[in-house]
Amino acid sequence: MDISLIFIVLGTLLTGAANSLLTKYQDNQCVRNCEDTGSSPQYFNQPAIQTLQMFLGELAMFFVYLGYKWYYSRSYIQLDQEESTGGGVALFKHWKLAIPAICDLSCTTLLNIGLIYVPVSIYQMTRGSVVLFVAVLSVVFLNRKISKLHWIALVVITLGVAIVGLSGTQTKEKEATSSAGLIVFGILLIIGATSLQGVQFVVEEHILAKQPIIPLQLVYIEGFFGAVTIVMFMVVLNFVAKAVQSPKEFAQSPFNIVEAFSEVLGNKTVLVTSFLIMASIASFNFCGLSITHRISATARSTVDTCRTLIVWLFAVVVMRWEHFKFLQMMGFAILVFGTLWFNGVIEVENWSFIPSWLKEGEAEDERTSIDEALEERLIS
Question: How far, in Å, CA of 148 to CA of 82, rounded?
Fold first, then answer.
């Protein structure tokens, strides 16, 4: 195997897992009343700031794109017309990508809120339901076709997510809310966010079918629109909250933009993890897109499954944020099996005991296109 490909796969695993773990670690950082025994400590619960971090990480891919163009110019290789489009020109030419960027913004914010209440492994596993939402929305809006066996695979994925969610109500974390009700609420937020991510992927495929653009441009353009949009929302909500809340409530409000940035800049750990999260997002996108380009979308999906395993093991064994639960392991195994089945890694149709009527009307090409549409834009 090519040694560079090995480093790319390892980079995808490590940076992808690091993003989820660093975000949860950031949530557990005390920012106020940390040593005051008379008051309850307050932790860094700033989902809007964490959403902005993600978009800034995506926007950083612009510099990777510049390096991409420079490399090919030095190699005297002529780029395609869409690949040679300048960065600034591409932003205005592909302004419609602001639509999926808003979906991405809403999705990421809900994910970050859900992560406050949910163990990081449950968070990562539940996000596997994105395959289900993308497939269903592609069938409804893009006229895709899915075979009977792959519909069954989607049912298996749903079952796995449900079991993982059920195990979450039995999971306790150190330094986090362990109420079963709040955990269920967080899981519902994550599922809702994942459904928005499915909408994002389908809209992107519809737009890109008419406006060809390379993946690197897709990432930094959406990063630009997302960063601008979230900053606008933060400013507007700051003034709204200031107008409707009392001074004491506003001082501790997550909509207080001055307080939000002071928590980042005033806490060294939060500040360092913010830069690490942005770096991990940019690196994960670069490595993931490289796998899709050099091997296949299915290979990237398999690597991403291993990333979820790393997050789970690290949270249980190293950080001890969670306790090992057999039900969670069983749900994860079912989720992985369904995902690999749907992506074609496990070829269930070749099993001899599968009834022939289930194999009729196989739509491998259509399933592959759905998978590629999903994995081409799969982000941490």
Answer: 37
Helix axes 268-294, 215-244, angle to 10 degrees: 150
- What whole-number distance in Å separates Cα of residue 135 and Cα of residue 154? 8
The pLDDT tens digits for 4-59 are 788 888 888 899 899 999 999 999 999 888 876 667 888 898 999 999 999 999 99
Counting every residue, how long is the chain? Answer: 380
Q: Which value, to the nearest 10 degrees, does the dihedral of the CA atoms of residues 252, 258, 259, 263 take?
A: 160
Task: Give the span between the Cα atoms of 212 and 364, in whole angstroms.
Answer: 24
Residue 212: predicted pLDDT = 61
Is 176 in a helix, a strand, or coil? coil
Whether the CB-CB separation of 336 and 305 falls below 8 Å is answered with: yes
- Report how far Cα 183 is from the mean position of its chain's Cα atoms: 19
Residue 127, token pair as written in the block: 């996000």
Helical pair 61-74 and 47-59, crossing angle rounded to 10 deg: 10
**C-alpha span between 371 and 243 (Å, rounded):** 47
Q: Please name which of 10, 9, 16 lies closest in space to residue 311, comparing C-alpha atoms.
A: 16
CA distances from 36 to 45, 199, 254, 366 (A): 19, 45, 21, 59
Helix (H) or strand (E) holding 126, with range, is helix 120-126
CA distances from 327 to 158, 168, 336, 348, 374 (A): 15, 9, 14, 25, 28
Q: What angle do CA 32, 33, 34 make, to 5 degrees?
A: 90
Residues 97/98/100/102 CA torsion (nearest 10 deg): 170
